[in-house]
Amino acid sequence: MATGKKRVLDEASGTPKAKKTKTERSQKQTKDQPRKPSEPASSLVTDEIDFPRGGGTTLTPLEVKSLRAEAAREADKELFEDSKDKTAKRRRKSEVGSKPKPSDKDGKKAAGIRIEHLNYKRVVVGMKILGQVVTVEPLALIVSLPNQLFAHVPITQISSQLTHILESMDDDEMHSSSDEEDSSPSRVPDLFEIFQPGDYVRAVVTAVHAPGATDVVGLGRARDDIQKASRRVELSLVPEKVNEGVAKTDLRSGFTISASVKSVEDHGYILDLGIPEVSGFLSFNDAKNGPFSQETKLHVGRLVDVVVSKLSGNGRTCNVLVDPSTYINAVLTEVSGVRSIIPGALVQSLVTAVQHDGLILQVLGFFDGTIDQFHLSSGDPEENYKVGQKVKARVLYDINPSTPPRFALSLADHVVKYSAKSAVSDDKSTSLRDAYPVGTVLEAIRVTRVESERGLVVEIGSDVEGFVHISQVSDEHVPALSALSGAWKVGTVHRARVTGYFPLDGLLQLSLRPSVLAQKFLQVADIQVGEVIKGTVKKLTDNALFVSISGNVDGVVWPNHYADIVLKHPQKRFKPGGSLKCRVLVVDPARKRVALTAKKTLVESPLPIVARLSDAQVGTVTHAVVFKASEKSLQVEFYNNLKATVPAREASETTVSSLPAVFPIGKPVQVRIVAVDLETGRITASIRQASPNFKSAITDISGVDIGDIVGGVVSDIRQDKAIVTLQPTQVTALLSLTNLANRRAVSAAQLRSALKVGEKLQDLVVTSRNPEKGFVLVATKPKEKEALLQKSHLSLDTVQPGQLVGGRVLRHNRHGALIKITNSISGILHPTDAADDYENGKPFPAVDSVLKAVVLSVDKERRQLRLSTRMSRLFPAQDKPIVDREFIGLNDLKVGDSVRGFIKSVAEHGLFVTLGREIDARVQIKELFDDYVKDWKSRFSVNQLVKGRILSLDVEKKQVELSFRSGDLKRENGSRLNLSDLSEGQKVDGRIKRVEDYGLFIEIEGSRLSGLCHKSELSDNKDADVTLALRSFREGDKVKAVILSVDREKRRISFGLKPSYFEEKDFEQEQSESEDEDPVPAFGVVEDDESIEAENPSDDSEEGEREDQEDEPDQDSDGADDAAMDVDLTLDLQQPLRPSATAAVVALAETLTLKNGFQWSVPGPSEDIEMGSDEEGDDDEGQQEGKKKKKRRKEIEQDLTADMHSKVPESNADFERLLLGSPNSSYLWVQYMSFQLQISEIDKAREIAKRALKQINFREEQEKLNVWIALLNLENVYGTDESLESTFKDAARHNDSKTIHLRMAEIFEQSEKPEKAEEQFKKTAKKFSQSSKVWTLFAEHYLKRGMLEEARKLLPRSLQSLEKRKHLKTICKFAQLEYKLGDPERGKTIFEGIIDSHSKRWDMWSVYIDMEAGQGDIMSLRNLFNRVLTFKMTSHKAKSFFKKWLELERRLGDEEGQETVKAKAIEWTQRAAGIAES
Fold it and tell me: Cα(162)–Cα(173) distance, rounded to whole angstroms?
């Protein structure tokens, strides 16, 4: 063998014998140098080593041949003598490692090679080394090196192709071109896609940092000891660096090498081998055998370990394989040079020496190698290995620098097989990490080897060893260890804890330190989320609080988790070294991060911990922390970054104006999980339902089964369903509005507007149950066909009185509602037969509504039925109270009875009231009111509900007299009272008839006798101001008076009201009499809910509105005239009729009625609807009377307020006929639109409006304007913002733009949309800034909303835009608005400025005086009149001022003031006459 000869060459460098060889070699070099001065030295020359082939050499072929022969002889001699001396005496163990002594030079050689351990000091730049991946970081790899070392590989040192992609990531051209090809990297592959923990990598050291280095590329802040250790050494996996020195001739079959994917071609991958002029090729078929995913192609820049299969003939392409078994078993047999041996290569070696600490080998027969005990099989090396034994070892690294170069190898089974170290138990192999997790306490480990300066090697189990560093054997400093003595000598047993792993060495990292054994947590993964721990404050910064938990495990507390509230000075609470009780909030083992919370609510919470999606069970109540708040929802966070959404409606029991204000970020809240979506991971929670006072969201529905007939109360109304609370189980149920609408034979839209919260529903059937969510589905009970009266069975011969029938309301006439039963049978429903309580029933059912009725009589001649819908008729067996009795004849009436009825007509001499089907009563004008009322007709309207007392009955003439006056019976008896019945001193009750300056006229109650109470008889105090006393009386006041004298001749009576005339018993007697008497009911018009609300402001306004809406009848928009009407006679008959808001008029569906604004139906005569702006109030009563007709005409033109339902047209055909005769009547067109809206035909109503605008003559501008206004109202209620805007623009183009703009703002204002009204006014003011009316109406809008400052800011703005001639008018209007809606004092100030600068504007003085008169301050008025009359004016104007002054003195002042006015008027006239004469 040549081994011996090579060892002689190696010794030549250090012995005198080798000096000769060196001299000869030097002479040859000197001799050759002049001939080839530029010839580069080969690697063999550099390392002073001769190779049998390849590379350059300084020896001649003869010398090489002689050296080989000598080596062969030497080897034969050694082998022969070795076998010959087998029975010789064994040498000492210390001499086993040395060879048998054939010569002294061999012994010296064996003793000269040391087996050294690798440490950070021996790691140098350029060293090639084998590593095993421990952790894959986003930007780096953590790699395990031999002898318990660690290193890192930055992402820029993986391959040159990957680095190039990273450098060109921001290059748009690179991205666009790469997207075109599949082979080009469309994205940067993540490191975890290329590497897995446990992978072996070939690397070269590129940098060695000093201990504690932190500026390491690719690694963030060190989170554990491994990362800290890996910072010191930086490696590179780039094939160009790792494979440097490998020659093309080395690329023979079986040669292993690392390569990177250079590009992806049609049939395979082009690889970069790092060898010049040679590229690798891996076919797609061969790639399928590789240890990577087959679904996707390999990314450019990926690193792969390959085995050379063959080199092409031209030497440029090398075909490779990636089969793992082929790669692992490939043995390197030949190399061209020492640099061709790269780490990871499996080489044939010969054991040349066995020592107690390892083996010395000959690698490939030419190079030295060593193996330390960590990479040998367990046991004594001297027993397991023999000199001359051939082994296959894996190269770990080259020992650099060394001369000659040596290699460190491994015979460890897991390294040779390129696998991870495993622990065998029960014939099953498990990885070390799984078998011995970090933190595991090992009760008994035995020391097997002691390295005095490094640590202990211990035996844990079968084939599993561990390493204890010298710093981990004790908490105290240990300078050295002894194998023969001390606490840690060989064979001792100790208790240890696993702290980590050395994957490449296949060892467990252990610690014997008592402090480590006592630690609760060794790593982040040991900590459980939600665990309460006690830590020590380590450091407080501006951004976080760092807490030491256990050993080197730290946690962080973010500022929003310092406490339940925000701490302004956290440094006062958290001081370094202080103890802190926390709860683990988040555990991130990958990032080695633990987040804690110090919130007391969370730390002391007994509620369950929700840390995973599986923990989030519906109904679970737990604590969470608000981390984001918006107006619509809250985002709360549980443990381990698990988040949930709390909708705004679930945030609080009460309405919250601003969620961010009530729920600041960091606030702990108690929530109940109400919904979990496992697919999306979305959790919905509720703070409201987590309240202890809240009823459980999941109601027990065990008491309700499918098929049960139930009833309930409507609790909420949604878009397409109603929420019903079943009684008495309180189970929540869902009812489809479509189902209920079909049952009630109305449209869904009509039902949605008619159905109210709180309404009771009966006969519901349970169709489905959902126990998890706690609700059921219900539907209306199916109709029982046997209970229905089919129209095919109805005829005049078969219908009997008392029978139930159903029909649809066609129209209303003077006899009542006309009901269609069948195509040939109709019925009449008189208003008095409609309900037992006229006020709370439906005396006038809506047109097209469907109802059930009982037949009273049959008129075969007219083919009509007399019907009744009274509950007492429908259900005679039920004992229900009857408010309004049924009067069949006059015999049912008695004089003095209080009855109610409906106004049939309003005549010139009074009213006619219907009390029954055939009974009408007359009410004369004198019996309408207790007082004289001039305009009495405006108080009454047809179909109005009234109440009165029967005065007289004439059965023969069938005449009934009715009275609305109070105390009618007393009046009849009192009419006999005359003067002779009165006496002086008699005390009577009276009523003030008239108030004069000299006294009061009093009418005795119950008679028509009246007299005078002089003002001197008002008070016992003679010095009292009787004028003031007179002002305290008003007409109609009831008083108690004493008759002072009776003059029967002049028929005069004198009264006295002095208190001295009366005793207390007089008033007590009166009070007792009034208590004994029955209360006199209020007669006349039965007030509707609006008037009641006005009188009783404490009533709930919402209830009134609800009753108004409930009065709207259901309508059937689908019913055809000829279709048979199937009516469910059992529907809703058991339910009491809902209260009606107005029982005096026909309850029609008012589709677009706006308060005090545009209406589709005629209001009562008493209502004053004016669409225009208010006129100035300085006209007297006569002038107002003169303008009544104009105002009414204006109302009709603008609002078209007419009762369309009292007219004849009741169908489309009727309207079309009328429009043929009056095509220009906007009144008819708007009625037609309203008719369509009642049956929910919105689109048809729009079409009718467009037809009207086309057909109305262009000269009729006002008629067109009316239609445009109606269309705008329609779009405002039923349309969208886009349709309204489009209609508004069209209207502005076809009409006066300013009028339309103002009308649009008014529509918004009347429909209670103040924000839109304000926006419209702003647009109008900007567009028509020259109009004073626009600015004043804008200010009025602000004042009505209480926005005083905004309104006042408009005045200076308007004056900047308006012409100067309009300034005074505008200022005056603003002042009037201040009086009416703002601050009267401010208005007074403005008027003072006006009259100061325009003292001769008498109209301004008049307006000013009128505004002050409205305040009722007579002294201020006197001051104004005195000031204005000092100016020079015409006698006519002065007369008007004096006349107004005198009128105000009579109304607000006293007699003295009136005399003063008269005197001043005379004085002014005389003065004016004197001036005229002069």
Answer: 17
